[in-house]
Design brief:
- With about 180 residues, the protein is mainly alpha-helical.
- Helix 2 runs antiparallel to helix 5 and helix 2 runs antiparallel to helix 9.
- Helix content is about 70%, strand content about 0%.
């Protein structure tokens, strides 16, 4: 089984739970979109910060170009989305854990391409429209395959990915509109 398949299989339940919770936000409605942005901000910003603090740029060379927290904050501000408290983030102490966290955030970029279809054209959507560099997803997968080949590294990445998914679950549950 490939590393990507192992990560996807091991995190499927967590991913499905996040999809269910965030699926409750009606993105065609301003209130729903505000709740979606606020809940995302409560998890995404601290997780991205944790990756930065753990040396994300040393683990994945193009990490700085993948960052999207500033775009999300701008959308939250423009939509005047309410505040949801930041969630506690996992300690990313190993490069494999950093890669697991990046895997989740980059996967959300792919999911954003589907979600943005529900938005009204006038709404700010820098976060959901954030372009990926050409080949960035295949490059990440290649890095995962290489850097997570040892079982203990793969497990550390899986543990971190599950912890990041829990951050998003917590943020979505904190929002009163959920």
């Amino acid at each position: 089984m490939s590393v990507r398949a192992a990560l996807r299989t091991a995190t499927r339940e967590s991913h499905d739970a996040v999809d269910r919770l965030f699926g409750r936000f009606d993105l065609s409605d301003a209130t729903g979109y505000r709740g979606f942005l606020a809940a995302n901000r409560a998890a995404f910003v601290p997780v991205e910060r944790a990756i930065d603090l753990a040396g994300g740029d040393m683990v994945l060379e193009d990490w700085p170009q993948r960052r999207r927290a500033a775009l999300l904050i701008a959308d939250v501000t423009d939509m005047e989305a309410g505040a949801v408290p930041d969630v506690a983030t996992p300690a990313l102490t190993r490069p494999a854990g950093v890669l697991g966290a990046i895997y989740v955030l980059e996967g959300s970029r792919l999911g954003g391409t589907l979600l943005r279809r529900s938005l009204l054209p006038a709404w700010p959507a820098r976060f959901l429209h954030a372009p990926a560099e050409p080949g960035s997803w295949p490059n990440l997968i290649s890095t995962l395959e290489t850097r997570l080949a040892r079982p203990e590294d793969l497990q550390a990445a899986i543990d971190a990915a599950r912890a990041v998914f829990r951050c998003f679950e917590t943020a979505a549950q904190q929002d009163r509109k959920c």
